[in-house]
Design goal:
single chain; 176 residues; five-stranded antiparallel β-sheet; two-stranded parallel ribbon
Length: 176
Amino acid sequence: MLKALRNFRRAHSGMAAVEFAMMLPIMLLLVFGAIEITNGLICKTNVSNTASTAADLVSQESSVGTTDINNVFSALSALTYPFSQTGLRIVITSVVDDGHGGGKVDWSKTNSGNGRTTGSAVAVPTGLITTGGSVIMAEVTYTYTQPSNWVVQIPISMSNTFYSHPRRVAQVKWTS
């Protein structure tokens, strides 16, 4: 019996294959997990870029209308490539001084659903809106689902808000 155990301990044939078979699931989990985490971080960066670009595009204008805002939404949808646009929601709002150091909605447009209610109060960072001034606020939310669903199987909600002061006028007007 002891001789059989000694022979088993000295036998090394096939040991590499057994070790590889034991390590393969762990290595695959690490590789696919790294890929999915990287895709999620790229998507989060796209959401941030979309928010800043939305506010920047609108703040460059003196006034915007339906055609202008639809063109902005079309351009912004392209920024999320290669990810699906189905979970993307963009709200662009002109926030004006309410006379008490806060902000209220002058106009609000969205690519899906309803925007903010005109005249409603908006909490903005202190000092962002000067007396008689305004700011363009872009809010982007995106529901990210992993392409493979192999490592992480739940959708991840991402959001970003970006503010930009109008460049040509004190307030960007909405033209019907």
